[in-house]
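Justification of computing resources. Each target in the renewal requires a structure prediction run like the one illustrated here; the chain below, 222 residues long, is used simply to show the kind of job we budget for.
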Amino acid sequence: MINVHCKFCLLTAPINLEKISEALGHLIGKHIENLDLPLDLDALAKGIAEEREGKTSPMDEEECLSGIASLQKQKNNELAKKNIAEAEDFLLKNREKSDIQVLADGKLQYQVAKKGCGQRVEPYHSPIVRISGRYMDGKSFSVPYEEELLTLEESIPALRLGVQGMKEGEVRTLFAHPEFGYGEEGHLRPGALLIFEVEVIRVDAANDERIMIDSPIDSFIQ
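Resulting structure tokens:
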């Protein structure tokens, strides 16, 4: 139980404006850091001071937001170029490994982690699979599912081509160039190499009335 007198003391304690102001500065700084943009902090402080003085901003709100969007696009383009170069270098070196199979030169490779048996997945199939996705540094970009329905004809190139030919029980690691991924959808790192771990549970479940999944792959990306 909270002591009433102590609670009253907290409410009536002297307000430290310096600490509150400093803490507010930290909150603003945290939001600026989340933007991850090359902002001029001196100009930012000047803008805060001039706003308090009633001076006119050099841009209206719409112009400012448009400028921020342009900065973000420019930064993403620069990051995409760097990531694409790293992805292509990885794929070039990775193909030299003896257990790597190339499906599309410079774009898609796979490695069999576990062999399967029986029927193979065909392009027109809708297999039941388990999929996880990660970047080269190991960080995950996917929402894992226990099992999900994958309609190959509607899938991204990496999965459409990478899952074809797999047998039930087979596990593959797919190494995909960003062009074979999701484009600019979701919140993926721009231009990054995508690595998928795929296990085929059932080769084709398109006609299985027990499977009731509405576009499961739409929620795969975080």
